[in-house]
Amino acid sequence: MKRDYAKEKQRDEDKRDLHKxxxxxxxxxxxxxxxxxxxxxxxxxxxxxxxxxxxxxxxxGGTGMMGFGWPxxxxxVLLVAAAMAELASAIPxxxxxxxxxxxxxxKRWGWYTAWINLIGQIGIVAGIDYSAAxxxxxxLSPVLGYRMTETSTLIVFALVLLSHGLFxxxxxxxxxxxxxxxxxxxxxxxxxxxxxxxxxxxxxLQPVETLFRVGETFSDKPYALAFLIGLLQAQWTxxxxxxSAHTIEETLHPRVRAxxxxxxxxxxxxxTGMIMLxxxxxxxxxxxxxxxxxxPFIHVISxxxxxxxxxxxxxxxxxxxWFCGLSSVTSFSRMMFAFSRxxxxxxxxxxxxxxxxxxxxxxxxxxxxxxxxxxxxxxxVIKRIHPDTSYTTLTFLTGVSVVGLYVAYGIPVLLRxxxxxxxxxxxxxxxxxxxxxxxxxxxxxxxxxxAFISIIMVIxxxxxxxxxxxxxxxxxxxMDFSYYRKxxxxxxxxxxxxxxELRRREAELEGS
Length: 512
Prior knowledge:
This protein has helices at residues 2-19, 33-44, 49-52, 54-61, 64-90, 97-104, 107-144, 150-169, 172-200, 223-230, 232-237, 243-246, 254-282, 287-292, 296-305, 307-340, 348-351, 362-385, 393-421, 439-456, 463-487, 499-511. The chain is mainly alpha-helical. The protein has one domain: Amino acid/polyamine transporter I, CATH 1.20.1740.10. Helix 5 packs across helix 20 (439-456), helix 8 runs antiparallel to helix 18 and helix 9 (172-200) runs parallel beside helix 13. The longest helix has 38 residues, at 107-144. The chain is globular and about 70 Å long. The two termini are 26 Å apart. The model has no long low-confidence stretch (mean pLDDT 88).
């Protein structure tokens, strides 16, 4: 009883805090600190990004990509995460990046940030679930006796997306519990994989120096350039941690718990991923043969452990990918819901609608699923028209997501620096989680890294991701003139929504 009273008291405090930003408590606030961390940790998912793009990293940077590339990217991403966490503590609304940009800049900055973030969210959901589909299809095809093709993978991809839509539709309590389980599951599977490779690898592990071998590439690029291209493996893995901010209106004591969720999810992913990649890489017997395989990661595990045990481990990893996609759909739909309730999208009334039975943004959830499938379908059609393309669907999807998300991450950080320079944002505006005097230099370095990787992620052979992003930005400019000017009024915080209106909306949902 005492614990329930404390939780209800915290809910009331969080609701009043949200009212200051002009929003009613429409979503169900029940996530604790671990659940908030777990959703970002599950989306980062070292068992998805580092595994599904393992062949990409190995092809371009050789084994040294794991020893040097992973920690290099992690270091700079931690700075980006810290800058974002500080803003999450200052402005604790589900709109996250979009609201930060609107309040630190203006509604036009916010509108562009939201749409660029939405583009990245489409890419990350598609990339994660396509990764799961590749593994599921690859593991099922020899068992069921069919040949794995891009068509069969697309069908499996659709089924994975459908399952994530259903679970998210049914409520945040289900998803939060699955996310909690997912965090422990990821850690458990990494430990099992590391222990198995350490003690049961056929022929033993390679010397540790293998992990730091540089100068080896299996691409047609000079090694320095190839190494930079290979960074996509780590950079894509470290995406999606803004989920802790997108679920902030469903988190108790969000000004502290959400920032820690953002930062610690990156830190824990760095450590667990480094350990996992080290043992997987040291288990390789022939790097050239691994690169030449259809799925280098599956090849390495099968060669190292073999038999039923190796296949079982691969299925455990595939389930981790499924959990990762589930969390990503949750984050995407909350971002879309928050943007739509401010009328930022065509038919916003539909995407901002809350299911009275499940208290979830049901329409936004299913639109997230449809858009993510559509991005992969576009790539599928392009490959039917131009079958000689050299890039893979996965690198295309991940390139789109990295650039879209990181540009959206960088805009509010840049606007924060500008607002500070103009005297419109100062230490008194910061939340309880802040970087103090280090906030400004950390933000500057974070922005430099975002600019750098945004260029690297769209150079050949992944130029199609750059073309796709350019087309999307052109469409965004068209929407600016055809929709934004007439319909978008900005975040509710700037519109003077009354306390009475907010309470009436909450009563309607609670009484339904």
